[in-house]
Specification:
Blueprint (H helix, E strand, L loop, with lengths): L3 E6 L6 H9 L4 E5 L8 H8 L10 E6 L3 H13 L8 E4 L4 H15 L6 E5 L4 H12 L3 E6 L2 H15 L4 E4 L3 H7 L5 E4 L21 E4 L16 E5 L2 E4 L1 H19 L6 E2 L1 H11 L1
Helix pairs in contact: 4-5, 4-8, 4-9, 5-6, 8-9
Length: 285
């Protein structure tokens, strides 16, 4: 029986990246749907859960993507509301690669430095990857700060994380190089999750910081988010700090994403979101 993955995307077009990884993860056929909301997803969910016999429902799964994390969370909740005993399929949430990218980055950071009691700063952390990474670090026992050009945006992100994960994150406004350097002055760990091609720190802003132990950068488009690092850094030692570049932990992100897709087809009862995707990442790192 064919393994069918229904790609539910909240954007105008289903992500081609997610489609490719879905096939690489073991799906026999990927069916993409775009512009989905809690109001229009119901009939699609019903089509997934009412077709195959109970023993065969594991061969149908749902992947929720798109660029908006909050929209993805709302769509996941709407999908789950349509499930009931005997009529459900496995589902995964990874809006903008948020769960898999954040899990891979944080898992690699943990492989270099345990997070318990450490001070961590997520630069430009209000996006999906930054928010998920902040939550994962906090759940591991770190004291986490999110920076943004706007304090209001940072506070809004922290509130969303508190609502979803029950952890407290500090918000800091840091609109320029000097303010970001100040924000990481006492940090032990820094993760940059800013927009592609936007430099957030110059080398002189971190290389002489004696508190810093690990830096990671999710940006793979030059100029990188953290100047003086390389996108291929895989735990390289630079200026006495351990560095992880976007492609350095990107291999784990892709392996993790594929592994999650494969896991969806093991049975029809799984909900893969931040916590269990992160747990899997730590075993793979």
């Amino acid at each position: 029986m064919k393994k069918l993955l229904f790609q539910f995307d909240t954007d105008q077009h289903p992500s081609s990246f997610d489609t490719v990884v879905a096939y690489d993860g073991g799906a026999d056929h990927v069916i993409g749907h775009a512009n989905l909301t809690p109001d229009n997803v119901g009939a699609l969910v019903d089509g997934c859960i009412f077709t195959r016999a109970p023993k065969d429902k594991k061969n149908t799964a749902i992947f929720i993507g798109g660029s908006n994390m909050q929209a993805g969370q709302q769509l996941l909740q709407a999908v789950e509301k349509h499930f009931f005993p005997g009529f459900r399929v496995s589902v995964m949430l990874d809006s903008n690669g948020s769960n898999t990218t954040a899990a891979a980055a944080v898992a690699k950071i943990i492989s270099s430095q345990p997070l318990q009691g450490q001070k961590a700063v997520i630069l430009a952390g209000t996006g999906p990857v930054g928010q998920r990474a902040a939550a994962m670090m906090a759940l591991e026992g770190a004291q986490v700060t999110i920076t943004s050009r706007s304090l209001g945006n940072a506070e809004q992100a922290c509130a969303a994380i508190k609502d979803r994960f029950g952890v407290d994150i500090q918000a800091v406004a840091a609109a320029d190089f000097d303010s970001r350097a100040t924000a990481i002055a006492d940090a032990n760990i820094v993760l940059a999750t800013g927009a592609a091609g936007v430099e957030l720190l110059k080398p002189e802003h971190w290389q002489h910081n004696l508190n810093l132990r690990v830096l990671a950068d999710a940006n793979a488009t030059p100029p990188l988010g953290i100047g003086g690092t390389e996108m291929l850094d895989k735990g390289e030692l630079r200026a006495g700090k351990i560095i992880w570049g976007a492609l350095g932990f990107g291999a784990l992100k892709l392996s993790l994403h594929r592994a999650c897709i494969a896991r969806l087809f093991e049975d029809n009862k799984q909900v893969l979101d931040a916590e269990n995707i992160f747990a899997l990442a730590k075993t793979m790192a």
